[in-house]
Specification:
Chain B: Keywords: 2Fe-2S, Iron, Iron-sulfur, Metal-binding, Oxidoreductase. Chain B: This is (2Fe-2S)-binding protein. Chain B: Pathway: Alkaloid degradation; nicotine degradation. The complex is a heterodimer of chains A (about 290) and B (about 160). The mean pLDDT of chain A is about 95. By secondary structure, chain A is an alpha+beta fold. Chain A is built from 12 helices and 14 strands. The radius of gyration of chain B is 16 Å and the shape is globular. In chain B, strands 2-1-5-3-4 form a 5-stranded mixed sheet, sandwiched between helices. Chain B has 2 domains: about 80 residues, Roll (Ubiquitin-like (UB roll)); about 70 residues, DNA polymerase, domain 1. The chains are: A alpha+beta (about 290), B alpha+beta (about 160). At the A-B interface, helix 2 and helix 6 of A face strand 4 and helix 4 of B.
């Protein structure tokens, strides 16, 4: 047997799952798609005393639109998000980025909530959630609260959730008119962990100047890293190639502090960050201009 | 504590009592004796253990057998219709020499079954994207891509 022994329960309702999670008091892990948890269990890096399997909770599988944007149940498979016409229409950045997540065989099983809650710094979904200003709906037996994506990620594989809390839903607000978006990443092979990636959302005002910009990196820090200085540089400016390049330079030099690994040292990661930032900002601005109000 | 599960594998129902930690890959190989599903890395990277659960390609090393209780699993053993009656995708691999050592082949074939059902005439890029989920260390993939193209063509010819 690869994994260590554990107690297994497969509740069919959310309340049952939350109650089990509360009872185990931090000794249990929630089993969503299992595409990150099970490998760590196979290595015995993780040896939870219990697994609470969420795959039988039908209420956690949904994609719907409400007045303010898109809402996805935590157990929605990544493959369902990728193929959803609703996601394509309401959250096109999410739609475009989904094929970059691992391989189709992984996305068939992997869930949106599992990846968001796992908080792997190399994962695409946390960076996308921050770029899209998503909100996470977190529940325990006694509490329910919404947490902004940028407050949700607090460190390496660490979120603002307490041990007895579960991510049950994520909401992506509709982008304002005049917005454009872009996503890109560099991986050694398609589907592998990205050496660096970034998502950008840019909103232009009626005069064609940048009203709002968000640029978020993955794989260059302990979680999704928002390039705030780069965004500040762009706001109020006309989005010329020079302005985009200056923002990308600032992002790579001042907004991130990447560490190296065997695949890419810090200097190479900064280089990739600059190149990818320029690409995604350019894409976002092009789309915003095309969609423009001017 | 062992749990009793009933799983339909390649159309046949199996009832077994298993530990929750038993991986689906080990369940198929050790409990049922279907060793066509290969285990390579056992942490979801290589794709050799890919099987279909309810007709979707998944890593059997990243699922616990108990999670397939009441579900339908298809493995490479269920592909052919009998001796000398290979599935058309297998025929493509045979004709185009889409394998060398063959270790990765069952996983690739199982990835391809739903892929070609949903996308009967894939582009080379789409084929390569799909194959990125299955590691092959012998072929360099060129022959595999040709085998997929041939398999797709054979399926289309048969259905037209």
């Amino acid at each position: 047997m690869k994994p260590a022994a554990f107690e297994y329960s497969a509740p069919s309702t959310l309340d049952e799952a939350l109650s089990l999670l509360g009872d185990y008091g931090g000794d249990a892990k929630l089993l969503a798609g299992g595409q990150s948890l099970v490998p760590t269990m196979n290595f015995r890096l993780a040896q939870p005393a219990a697994l609470i399997d969420l795959n039988g909770i039908d209420d956690l599988f949904f994609i719907r639109e409400d007045g303010s944007g898109l809402r996805c149940g935590a157990m929605t498979r990544q493959r369902s998000v990728e193929r959803s016409a609703l996601v394509q229409r309401v959250a096109p950045l999410l739609h475009e980025a989904m094929p970059h997540i691992a391989h189709s065989q992984i996305r068939n099983r992997g869930t949106i909530g599992g990846s968001l809650a796992h908080a792997d710094p190399a994962a695409e979904l946390p960076a996308l959630a921050v770029a899209l200003d998503a909100r996470m709906y977190v529940r325990s037996v006694t509490d329910a609260r919404w947490v902004a994506a940028r407050d949700f990620y607090v460190g390496l594989f660490t979120t603002a959730m307490l041990p007895e809390e579960m991510l049950v839903e994520v909401a992506f607000p509709t982008l304002p008119p005049g917005s454009g978006w872009g996503f890109d990443e560099v991986a050694r092979q398609h589907g592998n962990y990205a050496l660096c990636g970034a998502a950008a959302v840019v909103c232009l005002d009626s005069g064609g100047a940048v009203e709002n910009a968000r640029l978020v990196f993955l794989s260059v820090g302990e979680g999704p890293v928002e390039a705030k200085r780069a965004a500040e540089l762009l706001v109020g400016e006309r989005p010329t190639q020079t302005a985009i390049r200056a923002a990308a330079d600032t992002a790579a030099m001042h907004d991130i502090d990447p560490v190296g690994d065997i695949h890419a040292g810090p200097a190479f990661r900064r280089h990739l960050s600059r190149v990818i930032a320029e690409r995604v900002l350019s894409k976002a601005i092009k789309k915003a201009t095309e969609a423009g109000r001017h | 504590m062992d749990l009793t599960i009933t799983v339909k594998v390649n159309g046949r129902e199996y009832e077994r009592s298993v530990e929750p930690r038993l991986l689906l890959s080990d369940f198929l190989r050790h409990e049922i004796g279907l060793t066509g599903t290969h285990v390579g890395c056992e942490h979801g990277v290589c794709g050799a253990c890919t099987v279909l659960v309810d007709n979707e390609a998944v890593r059997s090393c990243l699922l616990f057998a108990v999670q397939t209780n009441g579900r339908e699993v298809s493995t490479v053993e269920g592909l052919d219709a009998g001796p000398q009656q290979l599935h058309l995708i297998q025929h493509g691999f045979w004709e185009a020499h889409g394998l060398q050592c063959g270790f990765c082949t069952p996983g690739i074939l199982m990835s391809l079954v739903p892929f070609l059902e949903q996308n009967p005439d894939p582009s080379e890029k789409e084929i390569r994207d799909l194959l990125s989920g299955n590691l092959c260390r012998c072929t360099g993939y060129q022959k595999i891509v040709e085998a997929v193209q041939l398999g797709a063509k054979l399926i289309q010819e048969k259905s037209s």
